[in-house]
Specification:
This protein has helices spanning 3-19, 25-38, 44-52, 59-78, 82-97, 106-137, 143-158, 167-171, 174-177, 184-197, 205-224, 226-237, and strands at residues 241-248, 258-265. It is mainly α and 266 residues long. The protein has three domains: 3-104, no CATH class; 117-197; 230-266, no CATH class. Strands 1-2 form a two-stranded antiparallel sheet. Helix 2 packs antiparallel against helix 4. It is elongated.
Length: 266
């Protein structure tokens, strides 16, 4: 088999391989066309010259670039990134008008910037929820801690970008809702309270004082009835006996047996 025939067979194999892929269809078309275009060549030199003087000189590179952009566009659609898809569509139009546009990688930088803004917004949304949890579930929160949490929350609100800077609008988007492990009622409460915390952080001094007072009352009651509680415990102990326990033998003759996991019945 001549070198020319081997090259044609290679193009046919590449066309077949690319045709099987979802994101390599432009390359499949070009390689199939090139195999047909070059099939009558008798030498590798003749093929090179024929390619050089035809549209196929840049075609494989153009096809590969178009396939890469198509893959990015499909990923943008799957992840609900319309701005990125628009960038891809615009770049494909540029290449269709001038194949040299395939060397322009500015679209990649622009698309990455958009995707970073989406990621930043997701992280900020999660950070707002983290602050909300800290506000609502810390047992004790000093004024200084509250100020730090509020500052972190406000910075997170300020980092919201794409697909929206509106917190409530974002809360309706599936990917943002999926970040928060609350039921619908709790989620709605989170959205409403978080908005209010932007300007007025919660104060827990009154709640903490009330809880401390209640704890004090409980301990006072227990202490006032200590003798009664102790006598009741002793009376109950006399009514019980051991049903089952684990006995661990000593390591030496002078050692003591150890009794563990005692189960008591009344």
């Amino acid at each position: 088999m001549s070198d020319a025939n081997k090259a044609v067979e290679l193009y046919q194999l590449m066309a077949s391989r690319c045709k099987a892929g979802k994101f390599t269809q432009n390359q499949a078309t070009i390689y199939a066309e090139m195999a047909e275009f070059l099939k009558d060549c008798e030498s590798a030199e003749e093929m090179q010259e024929k390619i050089k003087n035809s549209k196929y000189y840049l075609a494989p590179g153009v096809a590969q670039t178009k396939d890469m952009i198509f893959a990015l566009s499909e990923a943008a659609v799957a992840n609900d990134l319309p701005e990125v898809k628009a960038i891809c569509d615009k770049q494909l139009e540029k290449i269709a008008q001038d194949e040299n546009a395939m060397y322009d990688s500015a679209y990649q930088t622009e698309a990455m910037g958009i995707m970073n803004k989406y990621s930043q917004t997701l992280e900020a949304f999660a950070s707002i929820f983290e602050c909300y949890i800290q506000f609502n579930f810390m047992e004790e929160t000093e004024d200084e801690d509250i100020a730090k949490i509020q500052d972190k929350m406000n910075r997170a609100f300020g980092s919201l970008s794409l697909p929206s800077v509106d917190f409530k609008e974002l809360s309706k988007v599936g990917k943002f809702r999926d970040l928060i492990f609350l039921n619908d009622g709790e989620y709605e409460e989170f959205i409403n309270k978080a908005e209010s915390y932007k300007t007025s952080a919660p104060s827990f001094k009154e709640e903490l004082a009330a809880a401390q007072d209640e704890t004090g009352r409980v301990w006072d009651t227990i202490n006032s009835q200590k003798a009664e509680i102790t006598n009741f415990g002793k009376a109950q102990l006399d009514k019980t006996r051991i049903k089952l326990c684990t006995v661990i033998a000593p390591n030496s003759k002078d050692g003591k047996y150890v009794f563990e996991n005692e189960e008591v019945i009344g």
